[in-house]
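Work Package 3 (structural annotation) set out to generate three-dimensional models for the target panel prioritized at the project kickoff. During this period the team completed the workflow that converts sequence records into discrete structure tokens, so that structures can be stored uniformly alongside our sequence database. As a representative example, we reproduce one entry of 352 residues exactly as it appears in the project archive.
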Amino acid sequence: MQLQKRINAFVKLGEFISQFSNDVITKDDNIEYNDIFFDGFKHQLKLAQEHNGWFSQENIKFALKSWSDALTKESLNKWISAYNFDNVSPKQVAIIMAGNIPLVGFHDFLSVLISGHDVLVKQSSNDKQLLPYLAKYLEYVEPSLKGRITFTEEKIEGFDAVIATGSNNTARYFEYYFKGKPSIIRNNRNSVAVLTGNETEEELESLSEDIFRYYGLGCRNVSKLFVPKNYNFEGFFKAIYKWHPIIEGAKYANNYDYNKAVYLMSEFDMLENGFLMIKEDQSYASPIATVFYEQYNNLDQLKEKIKTENDQIQCIVSKGFIENEIAFGGTQKPQLWDYADSVDSVEFLLSI
């Protein structure tokens, strides 16, 4: 199957997805096979929201907007230009997907198919409504993909390589179970922001997007702040206030109330503003509705600490602090070449 055909198929998928990424879903009569798929995908969006209380309509549309923006001919061609696809021998690649945010495993799915391999997908029960429907659309716009995409809820078998994402505990299981196969195994990571106290209100407001998007459930969400000694959080709380409606979500509110009660009963020191708690803690993974912080005395020492603990960190949000940092507000807008855990999955797929 020609690489260009695969690219064209995903470009058409991006055009199809774009109809569902705005506040008002509007049918575009110029989209291929819309009469077959448009109403059905609207229904899948409704099912996804009903099935998983964390998948709000706003967050599903945000995820779809991110993918419709990424699946352009320009972006796809720029992404694949770094690789040589000439000598690919098609293999069966299994993907075990997480389910923490909508379509969280889509990049792996895209990478396998773009690389010329067949894909065997085992989805999380938390996120199983959207991708199979989009895969069916792909098979319509590019019939040569038929038979190359398989979804299963059973034990995965008959695969040549695997990309698996899970918690630290499941990652250890994956490493043992798949030790005889080429693999990428991902475990828990979190993202951090380094503040100096010189941030503008606009920068801190942008940081709130990194914290609250997807209710903070993604590995690219900022769950920890590094702040200078005696940092004043007043400006931070003021800048993030626009997100206060998040507490109206029942699941988020329940977590907020529970974690606040735990902190109060344990007599932990913390700051809170009615929808977010700030707690001093050396850990990277903070509970929902909580952001941890750690104070530093010296930026050079902090840089060394972060380098030492890099295997726990997905993204570093800062301004002029470190190489490969992400600008405030940018964590949930990765490019196709921004790989999870900095592991180049396409390079891996071309090597198997």
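The CA atoms of residues 127 and 299 lie 40 Å apart.
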